[in-house]
Amino acid sequence: MKKYRVFVTRQLFDEAIDIINKEAEVEVFEGTDNPIPRDLLLTKIKDIDGLLCLLTDIIDSEMIEKAKRLKVISNYAVGFNNIDVNEATKRGIYVTNTPGILTETTADFTFALLLAVSRRIAESDRYVRMGNWKYAWGPRMFLGSDVHGKTLGIIGLGRIGKALVKRAKGFDMKVIYYDIVRDESFEKSYGVSFQNLKTLLEEADFVSVNVPLTENTYHLIGEEEISLMKKTAFLINTSRGAVIDEKKLYNALKNKLIAGAALDVFDKEPIDPDNPLLELDNIIVTPHIASASVETRKNMAIIAAKNLVESLKGEEPANLVNPEAKKFRH
Ligand code: GLV
Ligand code: GLV
């Protein structure tokens, strides 16, 4: 028998499971697409040393209290708002995530959404498939907005925000950003300028939200913020749904107070089929897939496995979210 027991909440890539197998007994939840039922996870967590989980698993204080031997919660995501990190810290449980590896992939997708919403790609694809393309070519058919030369406003200049800047530069965009911390050396190197949130919203032709979801960023973009945006501007969100007040965004899109939105994330995922957002044409919706490339999803699994194994072995894992937990480890 190996010393440690690990539970993995979804079938992942074999490469990742092999890494864990070398050090621990691994059990993988059998479901392929569905999250593990909470009741089952509440039972499983009781006698494991390591948990590899997804952002669909809510690891709150009730869950963590059950975990008598748990040493690490390795999240298969960069965001970790699904985990009560304070509770884990108090109990000396490491929390790890997968930053870095998904940055470029997520920035690619964010830029793809930006291009798609401004040039009406999804809407015109639907039009063609539905048999509505009746005239060969029209000077005013599906007019969109240019991307090149426009102003991109990035809210949250973290890894993904910075990767977005590089893409925007290739399109000769002017880039402004808002963040709680300034990065003056990045500003100088890339010719981007810091603005307060109000000015950013007023000046940007595209607003991209790239902040993590925390108490401070919940509904960061609400009615007032949206009302500051240009009527011709687009809002893009690949972070977390709750950073934007979805109902207020719906009103703004419906009343054409802004030109459009492209959303990969929602308040509730999966989105309800009767969510009124889905009735609008000036919006692109995708099912939380910004990091979903074959290469990146596999790499994320490997990183998550390594973080888990390093933690079990008492080493400091490469992507430790809560270094304060060290003092409480036993
Ligand atoms: C996905 O949303 C992630 O946080 O990695
Ligand atoms: C996430 O990886 C970020 O820091 O932007």
In brief, what are we looking at here?
It is built from twelve helices and twelve strands.
What brief labels describe this structure?
330 residues, alpha/beta, Rossmann fold, 2 domains, 7-stranded parallel beta sheet, 12 strands, 15% strand, binds glyoxylic acid
Oligomeric grouping of the chains = single chain
Rg from Cα: 22 Å
Mean pLDDT, as a whole number? 97
So what's the CATH class of the largest domain? Alpha Beta
Per CATH, which architecture of the largest domain?
A: 3-Layer(aba) Sandwich
Number of strands: 12
The dominant shape is: globular
Which regions contain 5 or more consecutive residues with pLDDT less than 50? none
Summed up, the helix count is 12
Distance between the termini: 22 Å
The hetero compounds bound to this protein are: glyoxylic acid
Sheet of most strands: 7 strands, parallel
Helix content: 25-40%
Q: What structural class results from the helix and strand content?
A: alpha/beta
Please provide the ordered H/E string of secondary-structure elements: EHEHEHEHEHHEHEHEHEHEHEEH
The CATH topology of the largest domain is Rossmann fold
Q: Strand content of the residues, in percent?
A: 5-15%
Strand order of the largest sheet: 8-7-6-9-10-11-12
CATH H level of the largest domain: which superfamily?
NAD(P)-binding Rossmann-like Domain
Overall number of domains: 2
What does this structure look like?
By secondary structure, the protein is of the alpha/beta class. The chain has two domains: 4-101 and 294-328, 3-Layer(aba) Sandwich (Rossmann fold); 103-285, NAD(P)-binding Rossmann-like Domain (Rossmann fold, 3-Layer(aba) Sandwich). The chain is 34% helix and 15% strand. The protein is built from twelve helices and twelve strands. It has helices spanning 14-21, 38-44, 61-66, 85-90, 103-118, 121-129, 159-170, 184-190, 197-203, 223-228, 246-254, 294-312, and strands spanning 4-8, 24-28, 50-53, 72-75, 94-96, 151-155, 174-178, 193-194, 206-209, 234-237, 260-263, 283-285. The strands form two sheets. It has a seven-stranded parallel sheet, with helices on both faces. Helix 8 links the parallel strand 7 (174-178) and strand 8. The model has no long low-confidence stretch (mean pLDDT 97). Residues 78, 99, 103, 158-161, 210 line the site of one glyoxylic acid.
